[in-house]
Design brief:
104 residues; mainly alpha; 7 helices
């Protein structure tokens, strides 16, 4: 969570915020796809070293969906309980979800 707490100026966050403008979003669709593909490639490589099973790709996609959703809600939209809870509480709650995806 610490890196996310300071991510408000990151390229991904700034791109996501600009995506609300439909003309920017349309022109950046390829960039978003490339960004997602690179994040997925790096995640799969790292998690394959830690996880086993035939469904590692599925579990990594589920983890990515959780992380992207939390990041979008907390740092882009900035409303609701996720946006207002402490980083420690988000970490605690999110860790439970991610552990379940990874190991159950």
């Amino acid at each position: 969570m610490t890196c996310w707490e300071h991510a408000s100026r990151s390229a991904a966050v700034m791109w996501s915020r600009s995506a609300g403008n439909s003309s920017i979003a349309a022109s950046d669709e390829r960039a978003a796809t490339a960004l997602y593909a690179e994040m997925q490639r790096r995640s799969l490589r790292a998690y394959r070293e830690l996880l086993d099973g035939d469904d590692v790709d599925v579990r990594v996609d589920l983890m990515a969906a959780q992380l992207v959703g939390v990041a979008f809600n907390r740092y882009i939209v900035r409303t609701g309980p996720l946006a207002s809870m402490s980083a420690e509480e988000v970490t605690t709650r999110l860790a439970r979800v991610l552990r379940s995806i990874m190991f159950e």
